[in-house]
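in:
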């Protein structure tokens, strides 16, 4: 069913203007895409995976991260803050 605008017309209630931000660039892509690895175990202990299948996957995540780092000739580092990344 379509909204009847004659009964309740559109009204601007606010306008948000956000200036452009340096959110993504080649240095950030390299630091994040090539210099980090994904693992569900990087999160809080309360959110870590459970079960024998996930314990087996943990080994696979580590092996694949090591292979990718070797193949891409990078050292994987797990930053604690955005300032820890080398963003150029």
């Amino acid at each position: 069913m379509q909204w009847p605008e004659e009964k309740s017309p559109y009204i601007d209630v606010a306008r948000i203007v956000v200036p452009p931000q340096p959110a993504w660039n080649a240095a950030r892509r390299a630091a994040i895409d090539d210099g980090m690895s994904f693992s569900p175990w990087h999160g809080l202990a309360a959110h870590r995976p459970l079960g024998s299948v996930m314990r087996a996957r943990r080994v696979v995540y580590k092996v694949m991260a090591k292979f990718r780092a070797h193949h891409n000739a990078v050292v994987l580092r797990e930053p604690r803050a955005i300032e820890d990344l080398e963003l150029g």
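note: Residues 26-84 form one domain.
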